[in-house]
Amino acid sequence: MSSKQLNIAVIRGDGIGNDVITSALAIVEAAEKRVGNLGLHLTELSAGAAYYRETGVDIAPGAEEAAGKSDAIFLGAIGLPDIRHEDGTEISPHLRLRELFQLYAGVRPARAYPNLPRQLQHPDAEKIDLVIIRESTEGLFYTAAVHNRNPVANDDEVQEILRITRPTTEKLHNYAFKLAAKRKNRGGKGLVTCVDKANVFRSMALFRKIFDERRVRFPDIEASYSYVDAQALNLIKKPWDYDVLVMENMFGDILSDLVGGLVGGMGMAACGEIGDSHALFQPAHGSAPDIAGQDKANPLATILSAAMMLDYLSDRSGRTDLADATLLIEESVYKGFEKNRIRPMEFGGDMGTRAVTREIIALITDGD
Ligand code: ATP
3-state DSSP: the chain helix, strand, coil percent, rounded to 5? Predict the structure, then answer.
């Protein structure tokens, strides 16, 4: 039995958000049947573009407050291309949550699974298993994240700010080293690579300086550096050499899509957004309205995001049953591909959302 109830704010959102959240919650339930009741208390909160069309607001009254009081937020997908604010911007209450709760560490794992289409023919490509940590509250998105931060913005010139601050960067690098240590305990390489452009930008030199200050606290973890241009090259030439890569916002935006492309597609890309006292977990893909409600969406990015959420809750609470559930889900997904029992339509397979979900539940339940 769990010692304490954990409150999860669930936002299904738009399009396939509903399909993939339903699937992931069923997987968590199956894991609970194996490891015991995890004491999760789910509260559904309405938000998104469809909700905005109905009500004129993008998130239900009181929902931000409820999300703030939760132990974790679990989100499907938000946004529909034809529903926008009057100024043309997309409906994005989740970006406000990121800003409100200062979710600075964007965690994007990329792992190669057997029997998935591969972009790299090299035999070592099956060993790709890395995590990009994208700072998500400042960097080169600082001006864009909240309006009116541009020092100059007119028809002749626009300036954006690349902002690196010590408190956020210290926390970010700490997070990277701790994650590498945890992965090392589970058989990982124990390596953190600081990706920057410290040879050109003062902001990036500070980013690297703080990395150097933090690394001495983690003597068991190997630390290395890379300029972002060289890193882009090496992520194509030898991505299997990397473990945890930490970088500012825009570099992370670009490189996380690149590594996502190396190991499959949108439907595999899980994402965690971590702050000091809040965290949000969601698939990296959007609402894919073209396939919503048709039992076609690949739910694995959301299932793997749910596993990350349980791991985060385990770290915060010190409860090992939550970590056991994480590993059980991750291993079942891996085994499913290995035995060719999971064949999502996204990759030309014959299995829709429900069939993939059923098969993972069977793998979790039977254990083989
Ligand atoms: P956003 O800007 O909100 O991230 P996007 O415009 O990048 O969204 P997505 O909604 O992520 O687009 O999806 C683009 C296309 O990729 C979809 O139309 C769909 O065909 C495919 N796709 C995305 N996610 C999945 C998934 N989980 N399973 C199967 N196909 C998907």
Answer: 45, 20, 35
